[in-house]
Structure formats: structure tokens, C-alpha cells
## 1
Amino acid sequence: MKKFFFASVLFIFSANCYSQAWMDNLSNDVCNCIANLPDSLKPEEAQMKLGLCMIEAAYPYKKGLKKEYGINMDKIDTQGEELGKIIGLKAAMKCPDTFMKLVNIVEPGSSSSTKSLNATETTESSDPKLESNQFSGKVSKIDSANFIVFSVRSPEGKTEKFYWITKVSSQTDLTNNYNKFLTKEVNLSYYSQEIFDPRINEYRWVKVLSELDYK
């Protein structure tokens, strides 16, 4: 009985490791493909190339994508947007600088029209990453429509949104357990960063998570 139990645990652990491994490989392939895109691409060409990078990288892992995410690569014409959300998040975490390169190709010069996130940030640092800030409160909402966004309400009743865009330091395996933070009290660190928001077709300032843990 004990042998069967430990064999089952080993099987589950190995399956999880394999799942993480193939997604890491897929993300690396997307990052490498984007890194090799020429800077001379026009915005519409860059968008098209990004889609091709994702599809070409994903196809060897079509079985895993269908099993774990319900994405059928044979129906990519209807499921392409969902594929882009999943792979885009993974790849952006894997190679944020490379993604920023693509953003600069798609919308060159847009940074001059960016606005401050709120009235307290009217003076923008030349390198916002140098300014780390802390925030504590209860996670009231977790949105995963585009990026993973944690809405955190402070004890004073102020709610802020924090974007998971790059690697976050945490004692928890965020990739598989981020939903468990909902309704929990947390301490976090963040910095301000401008990102391209396709919904409004321009750059905007957001609060980017750098550390996240339970209180």
C-alpha cells in the first residue's frame, strides 16, 4: 500500500514538472523568435510576426495545450486570442526586455504621450524601476483577462491594482497558485512602469508587482 502511495505521488510530481518544462520550452521559443525580429519591421508586420512566433512555437506542444488549457491548434482561427493570452503572459514573464523591444516596434515614439497613473505621480522618474514601493491590504479581486492583475484594498479603504508582468519574488509558486491569494491579506512591493495597452492603443503607467507574499 505504501509503495502504491509513493508511486502515485512520484507520478503526479513528475507530471507537474513535465508540464512546467514544456511550457518553459514553448515560452523560450517565443522569446527567441521575437528577439530575432528585425528592428526595421513596420508595426503591422511586427504584430503579424508575433502571432506567427506564437503559433509556430505552440504547434509542437498541441497535445499539452489541448489537455491543460483546452486550446485546439487545429481551430486556431477561433482560439487564437486565447492562445495569445496564455503564451503572451508566460513569455512576458520569461523575457520582459524582449517583449518591450516588440512594443517599441509596434508603437514607436508613443512614450512621449504617456500620462501619469495618478495625481501623486506627476513627476516621473527617468527609470521608474529604481523606485520600489510597498503596499499592504486584502486582495479583493484577481483579473486574468490580459495580464494577471491583483486588486488590493488597504486598511484605509484605498484599492490599487498591481500588474503581474515580470518575475515576482514570492515564497509561493505563483504560476500555479496565484488564485489562492484572493481575499487574503498580503504585503507587496511594486514599481511604476509604462506598458502598451491595446485596448486604448497607447502606453499608460501601471503598478508592476515585484514581490508578493501573505501577511
Note: The chain has a mean pLDDT of 76.
## 2
Amino acid sequence: MLFPQRRITASVVRPLRADRAEECARLHASGFAYPWSVEEIVSLIAGPTAIGSAALDPASNKMRGFALSRLAADEAEILTIAVDPAWRKYGVGRDLLRAHLGSVTLAGAKKIFLEVDANNAPALALYRRFQFVKVGERAGYYRRPDGQPATALIMRRDLA
């Protein structure tokens, strides 16, 4: 074979635990200009309304990605999703989001919201694939690495 292909094994998605906070912080820093600290992630995971999912390598148990949401009554908000750069474009985000939406639904959410940078084409494609629709926007909500403001799109998906 001239160009051997990387054999991809599907991620195993498990509930996110606080002992994974350092891995989460590393992944978050790889995808966001202003990443959360380990302490912030521990605090979010430990919150009584938190729902977290970790996409793990089935052989090494190394984290490929994570999603973290917060539940309020029958609504949830995705706070963040991050995928290791080495695993982007291999379906980790898709598998992670599918499992995470299942967990949020089991927790009682009837709809889920998120905010995403209007210029984040890969994230927008993923969310649209999962039937999220734009319901609003927040101008200047994010800061780009150069300090310039960026618009956040508010998206929603009905779960039940």
C-alpha cells in the first residue's frame, strides 16, 4: 500500500470526572484563545447541575475530547466542547456530541442551547448536522487572540 491509512478505533464516551480536569484544560487550551484553568474546570464538573462527557481512546484511556453542559430545569446549555487537535476530523466531535446529547436528555432536558463563534465553520457544521438552529446572536461576545471582538451565535435544539 503506497499510503497506509491510520486505523481509527471509535472513542468510548464515559461520564466526565474531575480527575480528568488537567486533560480537559490541555484540550481546552488547544482550541480556545482564552482557555479555562484546571481549577475552573474542576469547579464546573463538580457543580450539582453539570453534565460532562469524555471521549476516550479505548486502548490507552487517553482523552480525545470532552463536552460539558449545565442543566437548569428542563433546559441545558453546552458550556464547551473540545477535541484534541490530533483527533479532529476523525468523528470524535460527532460521536462525543451524540453521546452527550443522550446524557443531557436522560437528565431531563427538553431543549439545549449553546454559543459558538460565528466564524467557527467546523463547529457550525457539526451543530447544524445535529439540527441546532440559530436563535440569536451576541455581537462582541468573544475575543479573538488579537483582542478583536467576535460575534457568538446562539443555537438551540429541541431534545424531546
Note: The mean pLDDT is 93.
